[in-house]
Amino acid sequence: MSSFPLAHVSWAIADNADRPACDRFFIETFGAETAFEMRVTPETAHMGFDREERLMLIGDTMLIPIAPAGAGAAPDSPIGTMLRRSAGEGRWLGVALRVADLGAADRWFRARGFDLHYDPGMESHYFLISRRQALGMRIEVMCGELPGDLRLRGDWDAGVWTRGHALGIEGLQAIGLSVPDLASARALFGERLGLAPLGDRVLAGECADCAAFWLGDTAIEALAPRDPASRLGAHLRKVQGIYSLTFKVRSASAAADWLRARGHALIGDPLDRFAIVPQEAQGRLIWFTQNTVDGYPAPGSAIRRPAELPG
After folding, report:
1. Which residues of the chain form CATH 3.10.180.10?
2. Which residues 6+ apart lie within 8 Å of 29 measured at CB?
3. DSSP code string of 121-182
4. Residue 13 to residues 81, 92, 115, 206, 237: CA-CA distances in angstroms?
5. Nearest CA among 114, 103, 153 for reference residue 137
6. CATH number of 166-289
């Protein structure tokens, strides 16, 4: 079976003026630690940056909100156009997966029928699989290291978030995707990508049938809505693809109490799982739960063990 360590999850912000508030939310609410920030400044102008982004770690999970800037602010910029088109509540750009050998990964994915895209100048660093090929989730396959990736340091300790922050985050339990049906999810994740199935269940709070797959250090949850009028059903119709993240926490009630004390409105049930309303969470649906799911990977990143694919 295949195993792909999660390098990061990203989303787009249409206007770079809104990016600092987004970063501040994750720093102040989640205790996110900055690994690296790419800025367009007079000193970096000669480098031709077309976006700004902050690489932020929450435990072992890297989140990257990206906004067009510099050359990307031009109306005809390909990157800027893509980011502006991809921005909006409930929309995510996709995931990045780390591999040991990009050439071998290229051959492995092509053999499974995927069309690959290389950004000019980045041919030795990553390639992209478009949303239309992966049930609405763009996949970046990368080798090497992300700038400033603290997870690769010998003294890195993600337990700081569990022990030292009020949310008590232990790790990323799952990435949820809105999908039209579980058969298409099994065909993509189980058959073409070779991810091990982790079982099916019903998520009553989402009115969804769920089929989970082992990505490597977290689970991919394919969520097929039972009710087209539900929040998940609306996401499938309007967006499709990455729908939510679920973090495992030490104590759901303590996390919920702390968030309420900060003035956040919550949805869901702390006894099962709950989230800050997306309008107060930069348009993201991010769940918290203290419950484990049988068969799911234990919290923690495998970023130090990039996937080795037969070429």
Report:
1. 6-152, 166-289
2. 167, 259, 262, 264, 276, 281
3. T-TTTEEEE-GGGTTT-EEEEE-S--TT-GGGSTT--THHHHHHSTT-EEEEEEEEEE-S-H
4. 11, 10, 26, 26, 21
5. 114
6. 3.10.180.10
Fold of 6-152: 2,3-Dihydroxybiphenyl 1,2-Dioxygenase; domain 1 (3.10.180)
**Whole-prediction pTM:** 0.96
Contact 84, 75 (CB under 8 A): no
- Please list the pLDDT of the chain residue by residue as tens digits (311 residues): 789 999 999 999 999 999 999 999 999 999 999 999 999 887 776 777 889 999 999 999 999 999 999 989 999 999 999 999 999 999 999 999 999 999 999 999 999 999 999 998 899 999 999 999 999 999 999 999 999 999 999 889 988 889 999 999 999 999 999 999 999 999 999 999 999 999 999 998 899 999 999 999 999 999 999 999 999 999 999 999 999 999 999 999 999 999 999 999 999 999 899 999 999 999 999 999 999 999 999 999 999 999 999 86
